[in-house]
Design brief:
alpha+beta
Length: about 180
């Protein structure tokens, strides 16, 4: 059997490149847990959609009650994680999302209202393991990086716990003794 000709090889390479360019993640991007639309977001070279920008009617409003009691309001797109909302809107929540949504910390720990919590997707074992490390854990606690916005969540309020488990803020007391 003869080897494929150069034209055939070029067509195959071009088809492969188109799949990479128009997919949600690049081949080099490592998959990370979280919402499907934002999981490979940082590594996405191009984003194509029918509408370049969502109108404000298509966005979902989220209210965050910060540690100091201040109410921070932001908007996100359906499919965005709550971590994406905080980062994209540059909300001032100290230490929030230290691991950038890789399920390696619990700094995006949020407390949900009962009626919203009941509608959230099931929690994974990995998220449960990280929540075990969170301060102020409640029956309605979840990690913001794992919660994907849905239209039914519009105008919801979530509370940021008073304390956060963040290794960057720990102090090694053994050096002082």
């Amino acid at each position: 059997m003869a080897a494929p000709g150069p034209a055939r090889l070029l067509r195959a390479a071009a088809a492969s490149s188109r799949r990479w360019l128009f997919s949600s993640t690049s081949p080099a991007a490592a998959p990370r847990p979280g919402c499907g639309s934002s999981a490979g977001r940082a590594a996405r070279p191009f984003s194509l959609s029918a509408r370049a920008v969502l109108s404000s009617e298509d966005k979902i409003t989220v209210h965050f009650i910060n540690r100091d009691g201040d109410k921070l309001t932001a908007k996100g797109k359906p499919g965005d994680s709550l971590l994406d909302v905080v980062v994209d809107n540059n909300l001032d929540i100290d230490g929030f999302g230290a691991c950038e949504g890789t399920l390696a910390c619990s700094t995006c720990h949020l407390i949900f209202e009962d009626h919203i919590f009941e509608k959230l997707d099931a929690i994974t074992d990995e998220e449960m393991d990280m929540l075990d490390l969170a301060y102020g854990l409640t029956e309605t606690s979840r990690l913001g990086c794992q919660i994907c916005l849905k239209k039914s969540m519009n105008d919801m309020t979530v509370r940021v716990p008073e304390a956060v488990a963040d290794a960057r803020q720990s102090v090694d007391m053994s050096k002082n003794s």
